[in-house]
TrEMBL record:
Recorded GO MF terms: oxidoreductase activity
InterPro entries named in the record: Gfo/Idh/MocA-like_OxRdtase_N, Gfo/Idh/MocA_oxidrdct_glycsds, GFO_IDH_MocA-like_dom, NAD(P)-bd_dom_sf
PANTHER family: BCDNA.GH03377
Record key words, sorted: Oxidoreductase
Domain Gfo/Idh/MocA-like oxidoreductase N-terminal residues, every copy: 1-121
Superkingdom, taxonomy of origin: Archaea
SUPFAM superfamilies linked to this entry: Glyceraldehyde-3-phosphate dehydrogenase-like, C-terminal domain, NAD(P)-binding Rossmann-fold domains
Protein name (database record): Gfo/Idh/MocA family protein
Pfam families cross-referenced by the UniProt entry: GFO_IDH_MocA, GFO_IDH_MocA_C3
Species this protein is from: Halolamina salina
Domain GFO/IDH/MocA-like oxidoreductase: 129-265
Length: 360
């Protein structure tokens, strides 16, 4: 596993939970943790349950059964491509790469490799999102006409919040767009279908921030917020939005979908619920997705006991590692990651030229 920050903790926790809650999941040994700072790495390996550490991914990626790339975006392409070239299955965090060219190289390596390549779109694994997918696939909402996706956070609203790789275009690729928008675009594709055309705008409100090391300041070269109007291949229309300066919104990912027969509304702040409108209803009903026959619920607690954000990673790791063990296909894979990246790229291109653009 490369990376031991936020995502390292989320995935290591998922791996630790698997044998307890999903007994038929493949047995996994947390073998080697990769990073650059030896002291921090040793402490993290101990805390996250890894047997050993390595400071150079080149010495590791060919010799492990599975490689998790949880590093900053600019560290996604090279180690991931090397792992796939050695036939090692990969789970890479989102967005797949800082640039479309990087994502294309990664998808090409995955296409040539005889190994699953997964992108960490964990919100597909929220029970309520799976529930919505079943409703849509069963035709319960009718023909899908409109999609609205918003992902709002506020951790950069303070101009004194320090710069990091996440505020630097060379390392991140983009800001709220790639970091948060990638999740929304993945859910749009998962629930509605491919996006064909995009008209987008990006905005940076704070263009300089204190440097992370406390010495002076650094320019902010990514967006604080983006919004876009989109047209899906199947004719549906949509709007997308994300912000890291939406004061008061801590981690609210909202999805609204209307079809000809029904509609749904989901908010990550109330992730055990789905608001549902069906013919005959006088308004939206709130459905609790915590029954034992609801997606993934059989692994956890008695009906009615809520799940949280961390459970999505357990479901994701179960699906991915099962595909690795069985040698079966996995989605969301690198083709999905590339398709999302094409939409991110289209939003940026559209914002630059001030016109609607075609995805691709
Ligand atoms: C950003 O703040 C972030 O950590 C994203 O990088 C994650 O993908 C998202 O799940 C939560 O917010």
């Amino acid at each position: 596993m490369l990376g031991y920050g936020f995502m390292g903790k989320a995935h290591a926790n998922a791996l630790a939970r698997l044998p307890m809650f999903v007994p038929d999941a493949p047995a996994v040994e947390r073998d080697v943790l990769i990073g650059r700072d030896e002291a921090a790495l040793a402490e993290a390996a101990d805390r996250l349950g890894f047997a050993r550490t390595a400071t150079d991914w080149r010495e590791v990626v060919a010799d492990v059964d599975v490689f998790y790339n949880l590093g900053p975006n600019h560290v996604h392409p090279e180690p991931t491509i090397a792992a796939l070239e050695a036939g090692t299955p990969v789970l890479c965090e989102k967005p797949m790469a800082p640039t479309l060219a990087g994502a294309e190289r990664m998808a090409a390596a995955a296409a040539d490799a005889d190994a699953p390549a997964a992108v960490g779109f964990n919100y597909r694994y929220v029970p309520a999102i799976q529930y919505a997918k079943r409703l849509i696939d069963a035709g319960e909402l009718g023909e899908i006409r409109q999609f609205r996706g918003k992902y709002l956070q506020d951790w950069l609203v303070d101009p004194e919040a320090p710069a990091s790789w996440r505020t630097d275009a060379d390392r991140a690729g983009s800001g709220a767009l790639g970091d948060l928008g990638a999740h929304t675009i993945d859910l749009a594709r998962f629930l509605v279908g491919d996006i064909e055309r995009v008209s987008g705008q990006t905005t940076t409100f704070v263009d300089e921030r204190p440097a992370a090391d406390g010495e002076g300041s650094e320019p902010v070269t990514v967006d604080d917020a983006y919004s876009a109007q989109v047209r899906f291949e199947n004719g549906a229309a949509g709007t997308l939005e994300a912000s890291r300066v939406a004061v008061g919104r801590k981690n609210d990912h909202t999805i609204e979908i209307e079809g000809t027969e029904g509609a749904i509304r989901f908010s990550l702040e109330r992730l055990n619920e789905l608001e549902l409108f069906r013919p005959g209803n006088r308004g939206f009903e709130t459905v609790l997705v915590t029954e034992e026959d609801d997606p993934y619920l059989e692994h956890w607690w008695p009906p009615g006991h809520a799940l949280g954000w961390e459970h999505t990673f357990v479901h994701e790791n179960h699906a991915f590692l099962s595909a690795v063990e069985e040698g079966s296909a996995y989605a969301p894979d690198f083709d999905d990651g590339l398709a999302v990246q094409r939409v991110l790229d289209a939003v940026q291109r559209s914002a630059e030229v001030g016109e609607e653009v075609t995805v691709g």
